[in-house]
Input
Amino acid sequence: MASGVAVSAAIKVLSDMKAKSSTHTRGGKKVVLSRLREDQENIVLEEGKEVLVGDVGQGGGDPYTTFVRRCRTDGRYTLYDATCETKERKKEDLGFIFWVPESVPLKSKMVYASSKDAMKKKLTGIEYELRANCYEAVKDCCTLAEPGDSTVMSLEGKPL
Output
């Protein structure tokens, strides 16, 4: 907590999502967004902006596209439960997406950056991290794949 920002309020929901990611029942969360509160003293959840597992494929559209659409102008910390397929199996991996676009004021960028590690330390078991500051870096879910990782054949049902 080098930035002095409290992260405890958002951690419970994010940790619950992590614990339930293997069950994937309707109502479970696929994407959860959190952000700095306006006073920049706490990280809070974006209520009502999560993407639920049951929404995916039932008129809810692509969960990654929905995520991108919901965080285009302000900074966000996101826990994303990605579905990927390898040659051996289909699996779910939890990822941490750090999104702070260029349009965010400099002071806010600094607070987001200095709070990121404190947030990640409380979220053990994260399989991957994506840091992005422009739309090009997040526009397609294929950016979640590790460069050069030939074992992943598809992400969110999209071939790589």
Observations:
- Residues 106-122 form the longest helix (17 residues).
- The chain is about 25% helix and 30% strand.
- Helices lie at 8-20, 63-70, 106-122, 135-138.
- The CA atoms of residues 41 and 132 lie 22 Å apart.
